[in-house]
Amino acid sequence: MSYLQANLEYLEAFVAEHIPQIDVVRPEGTYLVWLDCRRLGLDKLELKRLMMEDARVYLDEGFIFGPEGEGFERINIACPRSILGEALDRISSAIAAL
Q1: Span 43-81, pLDDT tens digits
Q2: Which band of pLDDT confidence, cut at 50, 70 and 90, is reported for residue 29?
Q3: Residue 18 is inside which H or E element, if any?
Q4: What's the CA gap between 50 and 30, in Å, rounded?
Q5: How big is the chain by its Cα radius of gyration, in Å?
């Protein structure tokens, strides 16, 4: 199994178990994964604040790609597992505190 495939499977399992309000959109041949955060019920600026200030992670906000991207965040999984795990823990904690 490739490193990226293993990180994708880790991300999917973590989100399913710890952040069920978010849906993972499986990528098609890239290391950038869309997270569908629309079920959190936050507007684009609230979601950006949640990720940047509360979770302290810097992701690509979906709205920078146009209105159809609102409610989505894009995460890079081409990183060490420890970094990915820390980011997901921070996101999970920030969402739990809502």
Answers
A1: 999 999 999 999 999 999 999 999 999 999 999 999 999
A2: confident
A3: helix 3-18
A4: 25
A5: 13
H or E element that contains 66: none
CB 88 within 8 A of CB 15: yes
Q: How far from chain centre, in Å, is Cα 96?
A: 14
Residues whose CB is less than 8 angstroms from the CB of residue 44 and which lie 6 or more positions away in sequence, other chains included = 61, 62, 63, 70, 71
In whole angstroms, give the CA distance from residue 54 to residue 97. 9
Q: Rounded to 10 degrees, what is the CA torsion of 40, 44, 50, 51?
A: 110
Q: How far is CA 5 from CA 1, 9, 48, in A?
A: 6, 6, 27
Distance between CA atoms of residues 57 and 73, nearest Å: 11
